[in-house]
Amino acid sequence: MAPRRMETKPVIFCLKTLLLLYSFIFWVTGVVLLSVGLWWKFMLGPYMLLISSSPSNAPYVLTGTGVAIVLFGLFGCFATCRGRPWMLKLFAVFLSLVFMTELIAGISGFVFRHEIKGTFLTTYSDAVMRYDGRDDRSLAVDGVQRRLHCCGVYNYTSWLSTVYFPVSGIPASCCVSFSDCSIADLKNATLAARKVHKQGCYELVTSFIESNMGIIAGVTFGVAFSQLIGMSLACCLSRFINANQYEMV
Fold first, then answer.
1. How confident is residue 2, by pLDDT bands cut at 50, 70 and 90?
2. What does the alpha-carbon distance between residue 157 and residue 226 come to, in Å, rounded to a whole number?
3. Angle (nearest 5°) at CA 150 between 144 and 155
4. DSSP state of 171
5. Position 57 confidence tier, pLDDT thresholds 50, 70, 90
6. Is residue 248 exposed (0-12), middle (13-18) or buried (19+ Cβ within 10 Å)?
7. Rounded to 5 degrees, what are φ and ψ at 44?
8. How far apart are CA 90 and CA 229, in angstroms?
9. pTM of the model
């Protein structure tokens, strides 16, 4: 039995090292998700009014998932250091739950991407039509147009049929250069066409989503399936520890 134990111990040490490294990386992904969730909530909150007509739970889901992964990652490090088989099996169960959650979220996002685009079109069009330059949705529209260098839903002509245009013209957030964009120019549809951005915000956002959907899906499924590595390492380490304890008996 002694030679068998001598053969098993290096394998256990190797598995422990790999699982500790994996648990640390897993913990880091939790911190990243937690940071993204908080950033989404506090920095992108106003823009969410343009994506959905009702408050989005996505920031809370990301934050909650991040907190859970951080705790699971710490537990994985603790279970690996302690070397208790039942802890390692429990860690594998935690990883399987995270794997299922991420897989379902990734598939749902990919399947319902066209519904998301349709909701964005409806909500953004309504925000443009009801624009007054003062409320939260109007400020969010200004922020999108200013940061993405776009104007209106499809183009600047989306503003010509709004209640805001006869009073104040096209919003200044559409201007290519603020120093060369007067209120008089923005009230004149012909002059405004030469002063504002040509591309519509809806086309810009949806083209970005479509062009990067493959990358987003690949990263999502890659992160999800990486949990299988952790589950395999935890189960293998638990089995080898059990075998080593049996040989000692």
1. very low
2. 47
3. 125
4. -
5. confident
6. exposed
7. -105, 5
8. 15
9. 0.70
